[in-house]
């Protein structure tokens, strides 16, 4: 009900093709150039969306909240990100700040699986094929393979810009067909997102303690002998729970938590508990 | 040093620095050895030697599709440095590998440092947003590419001006527990981002789904796509059963105030 009142705003901004191109170019340049361990690609997403979001959100507080939303943890293949960000832009254009949670859930649920597809194509398949062909050609003194690869990559870059529009139009379609079920859609997307996050905890967070204890003739490896017996990925799960709790405490800012993790890593490696 | 040599030095450093920016964003030449090697060969004026080195490193790199892996050396930088050393000293491919690979390893250590510094930059940008300093926020983002370019430009500067001894010296002086510790930290740190993310999502309401995803990945080694499909199945079921409740006229009035119970 609340949604209906704000939705018939008269001065709603219409995103132009130029706006979309601008976000796509900014994102496909910045991508990992602001990459950090906490929010990964988050700042790059916020930075690329910022100019167009300013046009959508005329209210300063709403704009702040919308930009902050994009500063959150985000990581996917840039090709796929073009589509995801296109879709989120369409949602924000239509529903404004009401779409905030839906945007977060959509990004979270799509970034992982699409990265799985994208990384395989972009970072494994394509470089392996082009690399082996052009590598052998180079060994024979022929630069042609390298040149073809370079030109193909330029063509790919323009394809990424195009994919942003694909995401934008299908995103608009998605929302119009959803109508007033956006809240339920958000929750459903969160279900998918949280499943992915559960998987991320077990795979992305890498911590193991392969330290060996010697009891007379018996050696016991802490990781394989104890932790793995209790539960696989036990340490990542415990660490995630600890960090989640710490972050809920006002005293523990993310920066402090990061410094803590670095300190633990250094001390643990010094003592031989962790190994690189 | 002749003028042309100085020009070559500068161009090699620029190429090395730009390579990382490109790899992080545009992915046009990226750090693919044959592409950067060809360019380095044109700069150094010896394409034949450059192609041999580039081809060698390219084939070396094939096995290691570094998907977020921090342990593989930066073969792109190894190629640029290799081409530079081999053509400048006339010592050929052997010295290219002997000097190039350690430099490539050094660059990976610097990547961890750059990403940690980028974290402070991200916080600065976000606090500027909160203080309505948007112009500043937009400008600060450009520090990112500059910072990351140093990851490969600094080792290149060291090599170009001081020679290969410096690299082995640096890797010798810094104790291994520091370099290893940073690598360990690199593996653990994504946890902070995930922890933050969880605070923005309805964790309490949908906790079971985190467990489902975790069990699938940890116990059954299901890939992220498989987990997402199962998550999608849950989402699909939830969406349609809840939509039905909303559209039924009898319960229509009660659905108004049930959405805020997990937001914090």
UniProtKB/TrEMBL annotation, chain B:
GO terms for biological process: phosphoenolpyruvate-dependent sugar phosphotransferase system. Keywords: Cell membrane, Membrane, Phosphotransferase system, Sugar transport, Transmembrane, Transmembrane helix, Transport. GO terms for cellular component: plasma membrane. It comes from the Bacteria. Pfam families: EII-Sor. The chain crosses the membrane at residues 28-47, 59-85, 97-121, 142-162, 182-199, 206-239. It is a multi-pass membrane protein. It is found in: Cell membrane. This is PTS N-acetylgalactosamine transporter subunit IIA. It comes from Companilactobacillus allii.
